[in-house]
Structure prediction request, 435 residues.
Amino acid sequence: MTVESDFYKHLTDSDSMAYIAEAALPLDVLPTAELRPIYTYALDYYLGSHREKVVTIDALATYEVSAGVTLLHLLVDHEIGLDPPDMPISDVVEKLKATYITKEFLLWQKTYATKMGQSPMAERLGVAQEAAVSLVRLSASLASTRAQVDVRDALDGRLEAYEARSAGYTSGALLGIPEVDQYFGGLQAGEVGLIGAFAKMGKSLFSTRMAWKEHARGKVVVLYTLENAVAMTLDRIACTAAMVDSAAWAQGQVSQEDYDRVKKYAEIMATSDTPLHVLQPSGEQRNVQSMVRRAQALDADVVIIDQLSHIRHPDPRNKPRNEIVRDIMQDLALYAQDARQPLPIWVFAQIGRKGQEEAEKRSYYRIDDFAESSETERSADIAFTLFQSGDRVQLHRALFQILFARRVPVKWWEIEWRTEHAYIKMLQERPVNKK
Prediction:
């Protein structure tokens, strides 16, 4: 157990932790499952300090994995001390990777040889395609953020990506508005997207619509509903999918035809191979670290958080609101880029009353209408807003804006927005007012 023992001895060294964080090892690389929480805790501790602090022996001795059992107990039980390791961290990581990839490759061979032999001739091409995807994922799981490319070899891939975009294919997490999605290309893994609107504008309905749309594309979606009850969120997803008035559904006043459409959607979902997770974590688990880690454990393709104001700061004592928002946004950006499993993270945010009042004077939002706008702009990769003034409410219209984006110029659109069905339809592009 020398190699694995040495790995845990490196967790208290700052240089080693910098290497480990960039190596982005999946948990399965560590052979002893019982000891893996030590790695997870040490890495979270390091990343949570913005790569400034490493875990201490005191921290290991006080963090309980079960009643009366600390992380330090696990090390002692497996006769692992925290004396200097025998091998440098680079050698340790490479040996762990080599052992893991050998075991997994042999298992891959056995699994797909059996599947191929047992499949009818007409299905064997599909088995081969599945095997190829599985092998690529296995290789990608060990990719390090120290990745280097030779431009001579890499540009063909960028040409293919461009050709896919020009043909209308978008690989990122989408909003569910085709014209907007095609324009910005979707939120990519490792990016944070912000969606802002005033209270009662339908942010939660928008979030459930996005979750339903992405799930319909075959994506594993994790939707965190931090404000509304899980039951309400489930009702809204079903009503959105079935085009049923969610308010009438909540009052038990839909037609039999509407009820049958919701029932049909429930039957379809019951047989789906792709999960759509709706989660409402307890107060202690509402921090960025816990939510992202849980989404990774659920193999999420897309994370949607409704909403920013309900995300918990891990240590909010004596901190002004602007610092709390700053830290939360920085954590979102940091954990979205986690090389072990980068994720696209959508976060809904509420425009405050002051921002709304200013926006109504000019009939559109600006970035400073967001609370703590400087930090949101610094940490997010793109920010959308959904603006309605009194006349737009009556007409079931809204102004949909990109306020800032790293990859594309800002753009505005006029949309039809009916909250009772979470219905959105593109009407026309609007000129951007830059004042």
About this structure: Residues 178-430 form a domain with the Rossmann fold fold (CATH 3.40.50.300). The chain is about 50% helix and 15% strand. The chain has two domains: 1-146, 178-430. The mean pLDDT is 88.
